[in-house]
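Memo subject: From amino acid sequence to discrete backbone structure tokens
Action wanted: Derive the backbone structure tokens from the amino acid sequence.
How to read it: Take the token row as a discrete description of the fold.
Attached in line: The record itself begins immediately under this heading.
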Amino acid sequence: MPLNERDRIEILMMIGVGDRMRTQQEVCRLFHEMHPDREPVSQSTVSRIERKYRELGHVRDAPRQGRPKINENVQQDVILSALENPHCTVRQVSRDLNIGKSSVSNIFKRK
């Protein structure tokens, strides 16, 4: 199970600051002792979390890559358009709402 932001912050706190710093191995062991029911974290995971915090100043996930999802309002507009005129084509709905034909088609497939 991937670590959430709270777990990453906890790991940073376990690392410590100044002359009170723990090694990555000590942090791995301590995390496992505190959370025996969870999968243990590796030294590379602790290292990545520490490096991310030093470089970016936070441990949040980066935004996902890829195409943006179709807005729910647009999806509702497509469905309403089809309900209002059941004989309309994908091309007509696409043109009326100014969105791609493949997007309209995908929305119809999902609903």
